[in-house]
Design goal:
The complex is a heterodimer. Chain A is about 30% helix and about 20% strand. Chain A is an alpha/beta fold. In chain A, α5 crosses α8. The longest helix of chain A is centred in the C-terminal third of the chain and has 20 residues. Chain B has two domains: about 300 residues, TIM Barrel (Alpha-Beta Barrel); about 80 residues, Alpha-Beta Plaits. Chain B is about 30% helix and about 20% strand. In chain B, α3 packs across α5 and α5 packs parallel to α6. Chain B is globular and about 75 Å long. Classes of the chains: A alpha/beta, B alpha/beta.
Chain lengths: ~450, ~425
């Protein structure tokens, strides 16, 4: 390549970071000042009641408005130590921003709470960790899983004066923030920066590549530690239960997203060139469909067995999919995966569906979508390791917890997606981790209320 | 279409909007641009004796509202820093080119008969329409015995007004300083001195803000500062009150008033005129947005007058004066209470917390199942203070509604609860 050629941008393969620029860019200082002035500083504010992690939203927005960005960030971190990632990944359109009273005015435009929270957490600069630690309790707690629930729990335990060992099956902490969230929502290694920030409180040690049932066992942990918190998330993906499901090109969406999130170069990824089918209707289905479009797949068809109103992906997420020119096909369920002579997927055959007397029925019509790849995003489930002997009881496929996040095993608490509480949102996992930490602390220090 | 032409203290102008004596009227270039934009008149920036004043660098500062808009403006600029000769020559030329527009010349010289006699005669030769005596400038000039230092002493005001009337045939407008305890004394003095009109308010002594890094007030001149003169929307309430005081005073009730103080749009102008002003003068709004704002001001005033059936400015001039009275004449038996339009209420709770913490605990808040709150007035507790209406962010959601108490008009001078009531 000659020097002259660098004057013109002729690079045919843009970098992954270029393809996955921030879908919701940060506010400028001026935008934040204007937006914060829109907050009515409601009393007993509906946005706070809608926030799963109880952030005092009017207070932090007022601090931004009065140019005390550190004060704003402290208010957020007091309740939610992962306020930075929640600001980026929270479905604010069904939480705080949906509750904002300004939706009810003629302009019908909520205060951009998520972006203001990001402004505070991105721009605050603390000489030390903003939340100090209480004096030592002398207690040690094991946290299994360094996802949002586990990190939040570890942080609050450390703040309350406990020592925490976190055991993580992967080689990085962050859980879905690192491995599962769409690349355009958490850019610039944000998940890792946030982990570093959380660890800055002190008293937390993360042990990587330590998976439950392999390198660590619950019985050992309960012996060695005063208490154990399980924040192990969901590991398994649901199957479609169709013939040829194991053929080449039929993939789990979460596996592909994980690969994409860890890839440094587009060439490391196997991206379908002409067509892909995504099966599912949750945010993961939307994420994979949009990311495939950004990676260059020409036709991406997302198929869901019910209507748009039934999709668990929010309207906002569906809108993002449409903006990415993802074709959304509703009222159809896959009945057969077709593979070619090389056992490579070639098409998916669908049965059209309808609701009859409240039940989902086939209409008797069929159609086929030719594709190079199929991505399954029909939900994840909890899978206990096979050779782990003693584990808490399950209910509805997830870990049963009582009040105060206690499991059926003494000293063992649980929270986040692996339990049956909430809708498996990141912000809920953070909240459950925090509340579980407080429950564990009360349990350990004997101040448990009865 | 309403007729906006005015004759103020004998000075004709195509509309009631004049530019106040200030930086925007410093020289021919600006003044001609103002006339081109449609201003009815201009008060030329204050002339003084030679040698001309010298200004410092860094001259203005502002007080901002929550959205970053300028609500108050502060300056430490002195009177013209150009020679008298240059100003007089330009004034003459501009007046020749713009015969229909009013051109008034603001003046400030030492409190000596000779000085005033000399300058008013010079100005008269230019063909200008009138004189405005700057007795208001609160910064810099008072340290030299001029500006507000004169305006604060009614005897000086009367004396200088008399000299000017004696040595000039032009209408004389006395510009009053608000940096005084009772504006009526200065207005009465101007009237007694034979002034044809007063204009008010000049700027208010002010410090707009402190730079907390440099620990100095703004505007900063090499690490130091001094108080300036405050104007802009924030001073409008003070100006309106002072205008009303003069309009209500029997001694000055017929003295023409040129209203000044934060006038930014047609509505502000209409308010000053309704309190008795014959025209208005504008500065800060033009300094923030440029001379073009006069178009919307004229259009707005004219459309509003049409909607009210007012054909001329005189039709509503002073209409609010009779309704501006002393507290003791207000009707004690009048009662309003707040009413919340539940259809419009967005549930922000601002009315509740302000009433609960700082007023009369007259609003009930009830949590709803959907996470919002319902706000309701407890009428027995409501004193009709307007606080909830003020704090409510939604237009016409909270309104103050009259309650018929079936009692006749009764004021404090008649009220049996007043131990000093007048005998009936």
């Amino acid at each position: 390549m000659t020097a002259a050629s660098t004057l013109v941008d002729t690079d045919p393969s843009p970098s992954l970071d270029d393809l996955f620029s921030d879908i919701k860019p940060a506010l400028s200082h001026r935008q934040a000042v204007i937006e914060s002035a829109r907050c009515y500083y409601c009393y007993d504010a509906p946005c706070v009641k809608a926030c799963p992690s109880d952030i005092d939203i009017p207070s932090f927005i007022a601090s931004i408005h009065h140019e005390d960005v550190n004060g704003a960030a402290e208010t957020i971190y007091e309740q939610n130590i992962m306020g930075g990632s929640c600001a980026r990944v929270c479905p604010t359109e069904i939480l705080c921003e949906q509750a904002c009273v300004r939706n009810k005015e003629e302009e019908c435009a909520p205060v951009l709470i998520g972006l203001l929270q990001r402004h505070a957490t991105d721009n605050a600069v603390f000489p030390d960790h903003p939340i100090g630690r209480a004096s030592s309790t002398g207690k040690k707690v094991a946290v299994v899983g360094a996802g949002p629930a586990g990190l939040s729990c570890a942080h609050r335990l450390a703040v309350l004066g406990n020592e925490v060992d976190v055991f993580e099956a992967q080689s990085k902490a962050g859980g879905l923030n690192e491995y599962g969230i769409a690349k355009y929502k958490l850019t610039n290694q944000f998940a890792q920066k946030e982990v570093d920030f959380i660890l800055g409180v002190g008293g937390i040690t993360i042990h990587y590549n330590k998976a439950l049932g392999k390198e660590i066992h619950l019985t050992d942990l309960t012996e060695r530690y005063d208490s154990v918190f399980l924040g192990i998330g969901l590991q398994d993906t649901r199957e479609l239960g169709l013939a040829n499901e194991s053929s080449i090109g039929v993939l789990n969406a979460v596996d592909f997203i994980k690969e994409l999130r860890q890839a440094n170069d587009i060439d490391q990824l196997d991206v379908p060139r002409t067509s892909a089918v995504v099966i599912g209707a949750g945010n993961t289905a939307i994420d994979i469909a949009c990311q495939l479009k950004r990676l260059g797949t020409e036709e991406v068809t997302l198929v869901y067995r019910r209507g748009e109103a039934d999709m668990s992906a929010t309207d906002h997420e569906q809108h993002i999919a449409k903006e990415h020119q993802v074709r959304i096909k509703t009222w159809a369920r896959p009945v057969e995966i077709r593979a070619d002579a090389n056992n490579h997927v070639s098409a998916v055959r669908f049965a059209k569906t309808r609701i009859d007397n409240g039940k989902l029925m086939d209409t008797g019509e069929f159609f086929e979508v030719a594709c190079e790849a199929v991505y399954k995003a029909v939900g994840q489930s909890l899978a206990y390791p096979a050779d782990e002997t003693q584990l808490p009881d399950l209910g509805g496929g997830k870990i049963s917890t009582m009040d105060n996040f206690k499991t059926t095993i003494s000293k063992v608490f649980a929270g986040g997606d692996c339990t049956g509480v909430g809708q498996d949102l990141t912000v809920e996992a953070v909240q459950q981790g925090k509340l579980a930490a407080m429950a564990i602390h009360n349990y350990l220090t004997g101040s448990e209320g009865n | 279409m309403a007729d906006l032409t005015t004759v103020f203290a004998g000075i004709k102008s195509p509309n009631p909007f004049w530019l106040a004596s200030a930086p925007p009227t410093d020289k021919a270039y600006n003044v001609e641009r103002a006339y081109e934009a449609g201003w009815g008149g201009v008060v030329w920036k204050t002339l003084g004796e030679d040698p001309a004043a010298v200004n410092v660098s860094s001259r203005y500062s502002a007080h901002y509202d929550g959205n970053g808009n300028v609500s108050g403006f502060n300056n430490i600029e002195l009177i013209t820093d150009r020679s008298l000769e240059v100003n007089l020559r330009e004034i003459e030329a501009v007046k020749k080119s713009w015969p229909e527009q009013a051109l008034i010349v603001s003046l400030m010289v030492p409190c000596e008969e000779h000085a005033w006699k000399t300058i008013v005669r010079e100005v008269e030769k230019t063909g200008a329409d009138g004189l405005e005596l700057n007795f208001g400038c609160p910064h810099g000039m008072p340290e030299r015995g001029m500006g507000a230092a004169v305006g604060q002493v009614p005897e000086y005001v009367e004396q200088v007004a008399r000299w000017c009337k004696m040595y000039s045939t032009l209408p004389v407008i006395v510009k009053l300083t608000p940096n005084i305890t009772d504006i009526r004394f200065a207005a009465r003095a101007a009237n007694a001195g034979g002034a044809d009109a007063v204009s008010l308010i000049n700027t208010i002594n002010s410090i707009t803000s402190i730079d907390l890094d440099q620990m100095a007030a703004r505007p900063i001149v090499d690490g130091k500062s001094t108080h300036g003169g405050y104007c802009g929307p924030a001073v409008k309430p003070i100006a309106l009150n002072m205008v009303a005081e003069i309009a209500r005073d029997p001694e000055t009730a017929s003295l023409p008033i040129s209203g000044i103080g934060g006038i930014s749009n047609w509505r502000d102008a209409a308010e000053f005129i309704s309190l008795g002003c014959g025209n208005v003068q504008v500065c800060t709004a033009a300094m923030i947005h440029g001379f073009r704002i006069v178009k919307e001001m004229k259009d707005g005033l004219s459309h509003w007058m049409d909607s009210k059936g007012y054909n001329t400015i005189a039709d509503f001039q002073g209409a609010a004066v009779p309704n501006t009275t002393d507290w003791k004449y207000l009707n004690i038996n009048y009662k309003v209470v707040a009413e919340i339009d539940q259809e419009k209420c967005i549930g922000c709770g601002r009315c509740f917390i302000s009433c609960e913490d700082t007023s009369h605990q007259a609003i009930a808040i009830t949590a709803q199942n959907n996470g919002t709150n319902k706000l309701e007035i407890i009428e027995e507790e409501c004193v009709g203070c307007n606080l909830c209406e003020i704090t409510c962010p939604v237009d016409d959601c909270i309104t103050m509604v009259k309650r018929d108490v079936e009692k006749p008009y009764l004021n404090w001078t008649q009220d049996p609860r007043n131990p000093h009531r007048e005998a009936s």
